[in-house]
Amino acid sequence: MSRVVLITGGARGIGRGIAEAFLRAGHIVMIADLADSGAWNYNLADRSTMDEAVSQLGNLGDVASVPVDVTDSASCQNAVKETLGRFGRLDVLVNNAGVVASGPISQFEEKDWDRIFDVNVKGIYLMTRAALKALSDSNDAAVINTASIGGKKGSAGLSAYCGSKFAAIGITQSLALEFAPAGIRVNALCPGIVGTAMWHDHLMAGQGEAQFKEWMTTLIPLGRPQETSDMGDAAVYLATAHNVTGVALSVAGGMEMN
Predict the structure, then answer these.
(1) Is 42 a known active-site residue?
(2) pLDDT tens digits, 61-97
(3) Per DSSP, what are the bridge partners of residue 92?
(4) Is the pTM of this model over 0.85?
């Protein structure tokens, strides 16, 4: 039987790459993302982005979408309810929704700090709690939290983001132990540098694609940026590796090793 995968932040970027990989692997996918993103320092998803993703990925398998705000408990519960109503089960939860803002701590806005931790950390808590009963009913359940190599090593100007991703890894390890008796595996995916809006429109704003690629050749040992498809392949592995739990898997071309 095909497993059902719920992916937050699944309409674009890494989340969409994960959705595509699961569909290619024969899974059923529910994309959960913002219906109205509001203002941020780079473009987030909205309803039209979700509709476009479902339309373009529909030829790969069974895929649908549901709006979610991972900072709102009722919204998280509704996303799980809609997934169960549409597909009858939930086997894999991918907590991928995340945001970033950068800058020195002396100038960093409190509202931006709170937003990052609300989405990147509290969102994992609320979505996992909402999905736990459904995951417990599965005989092959897994949770994947999108962290970052920034959750293993801090960077100047990224205190909030790195702090939130360190937290994501800590939550992953704790839940892996907590859920192990129920057979639910919990792992973290740690992307390196993926050419999404987070990088192009914020962290490297003003630099063109050629500059981005040139920088990657010097910064990354393998000499190339990571693709969203790389993250998708890693997520499928973590969801299907039956004896792997509590790991934080770096997919970073050698930028981070342990």
Answers:
(1) no
(2) 999 999 999 999 999 999 999 999 999 999 999 999 9
(3) 5, 142
(4) yes
